[in-house]
Every structure is written in C-alpha cells, then in structure tokens.
Write a structure and sequence with these properties.
Blueprint (H helix, E strand, L loop, with lengths): L8 H7 L4 H6 L11 H68 L10 H8 L2 H20 L10 H20 L10 H7 L5 H22 L1 H13 L1 H4 L4 H5 L1 H18 L8 H42 L1
Helix pairs in contact: 3-5, 3-6, 3-12, 4-8, 7-13, 8-9, 8-13, 12-13
Length: 316
C-alpha cells in the first residue's frame, strides 16, 4: 500500500511541469484538461524549435567543415598531379639531354661510352619514363575529365598544359565548384605492380653514380660531354647537375608515399576512395622501405668491394 507521504504520479506531473519528456511520452487524454497542459505544450514546442535550430546550425557547421576539407583535399590532388608533371619533365630532360646523345653515337667514331657503361648509368630509365607517362594520362583524365591516350614529351607543351590546367583547377577550388569526390586510389592500385621497376633502378643507383665519377675522372670525352650539355641546356636544367637528374627515380617512390599519406589524411573513412587509398599507401610504404633497404645493402656491398680491391692492391 502506498504511503500518504509519497506523492502519486499525477501529483508529480502537476508539481513538476518542467518534466516535459514525461509528458511527451504519457500524453493521455486526462492531461488534456490540465490547466498547465497548454503551457507545457508550448514549452515542448519551444524545445522542439530550439532542437531544430541547433541541428540546422550543426548541419551548417558540418557542411562548412566538409567544404573546407574538400578544398584541402583538392589541393593535395593538384599537388600530386603537378609534382608528377615536374617529375616527368625531369625524366625527359635526363633522356633527351644526356641518354639519347650518348646512345646515338654508340658504335660510331664519335662514341663516348660503350653500351655496357650506358646501361649501368641509365639502368631502366626508359620503362620508368613510359610508366610515368601512363600514370599522367590517368591522372589528367580523372582530374580534368580529358580523354587523352598519351602525354606529350614536348617540354614547351608541358609548360603550357601545366599553367592552364593549374589555373583552372585553382579557380574551381576558389569558387567551390569542385565538390564531387575525385578518386585516385584505383589509379595507384592499378599501377602498383609496375612500380617494382623502381627497385631495379634504385638497386643499381650507387653503381651508376660510381660509374659516372669514374668516367668523368678517366674519360675526357665523357667529362667534356657532360660539361657541354650543362652549358647548352642550362635554361632547362635549372642549374641542376647530371647526378641530380639521375637520382629522381630513386626519390620518387618516397615522394609517392608522402603524397598518398597526405591525401589519405584528407579523406574520411566514409568516402569511397578511402579503402583503395589506404591500400595504395600501404603498397607505396612497402616499396619505399624496400628501395631504401636495397640502396643501403648496395652501399654496403660497394664499400666491401672497395675494401677488398684496396687490400688486393696492397698485396700486389
């Protein structure tokens, strides 16, 4: 039996009209006749309006945050494209200014280095250049809705393309016109198996640099060729050395890792691109680790080789 000291449920509601949530759940007809009901209903409507207004403010804030996130993500996309074009230009310069002239005079009276030395210095540059061109076609078509099948190797055309498309992309970002999610994860995932060609180049790099140093010291024709090319092509070489261009493919895998990580950080888990981007980043990270380890092991081997050679010279 309920004690007279304990108030009934009805008394609770009468004494505490601020318990609006209870009223909302227990909306029986007997409360319709309460003198306080109209006031309570008005309070509930005010609460509902305040909740709706709060949600609108939250949605507006969320929308602004997403818009800002999209802009930041688009800037990373543009950095990926622009850096790939600059890298492609560097490879073209390496091929056109140095490799091709040396290759064209093989087995002629004007030969500067033999085919074996040429292979040691430039390794598998040509397939890397071809792969980079294919990647640029995919990036270009995805970012700018083009339908190109090849990417120009003409440096003047490249400069013009960079300027026009870079300006167009930045203008779209400023106007907030580029709101559609642009996905790159699939492109890098599809290219990932071919990135293994970088390991060959990287493993050979230390030997390539040693060969260049040896040829410059002992082959006057090679030394003069490098110096002449640097002078003649100074406008496109931008005061960079021959060796600075040779190292570009070695640096690129690490650069891919950094760019993909940046893009991944600007991509939410709910976005479609997140899964493939995560996979691409993982592959790039493994490749960067493998390349760095290959270089380290190759350096150790060359040092041991030099030590052994010096010991042999002492014994003689």
């Amino acid at each position: 039996m309920a004690s007279s000291e304990n108030p009934s449920i009805d008394e609770n509601l009468t004494e505490k009209p601020e318990s609006n949530l209870i009223l909302l759940v227990n909306r029986d007809s007997k409360y319709e006749n309460d003198d306080n009901y109209d006031a309570m209903r008005s309070d509930l409507e005010d609460i509902s309006v305040n909740i709706d207004n709060g949600r609108e403010e939250e949605n507006e804030l969320f929308s602004k945050e997403m818009e800002e996130q999209t802009k930041k993500r688009n800037l990373v996309l543009m950095e990926i494209w622009n850096s790939e074009v600059q890298y492609y230009k560097g490879l073209i310069i390496l091929e056109e200014a140095f490799m091709k002239p040396l290759k064209n005079c093989l087995n002629t009276p004007q030969e500067i280095i033999n085919s074996k030395t040429l292979k040691v210095i430039f390794s598998n540059l040509e397939p890397i250049l071809s792969l980079t061109g294919e990647l640029l076609v995919d990036l270009n078509n995805r970012l700018f809705y083009c339908k190109e099948k090849t990417f120009s190797k003409n440096l003047d055309v490249l400069e013009s393309k960079i300027f026009v498309q870079f300006e167009e992309f930045l203008n779209n970002i400023k106007k907030s016109e580029s709101k559609e999610e642009i996905k790159l994860g699939d492109i890098f995932c599809n290219m990932a198996p071919f990135f293994k060609i970088y390991s060959t180049y990287s493993m050979n790099f230390n030997k390539a640099i040693q060969t260049v140093s040896f040829e410059i010291e002992h082959n006057i024709n090679f030394k003069n060729f490098i110096q002449d090319q640097i002078l003649q092509e100074k406008d496109i070489l931008k005061d960079l050395s021959f060796q600075s261009y040779l190292i570009l493919p070695v640096q690129r895998i690490t650069r891919y890792k950094m760019l993909l990580e940046d893009l991944l950080n600007k991509t939410t888990k709910k976005q479609e691109d997140f899964s493939l981007l995560s996979r691409s980043f993982g592959i790039a990270s493994e490749m960067a680790l493998f390349v760095n380890e290959s270089i380290r092991q190759n350096e150790m081997f060359l040092k041991m080789f030099d030590i052994q050679r010096n010991l042999n010279n002492l014994n003689e």
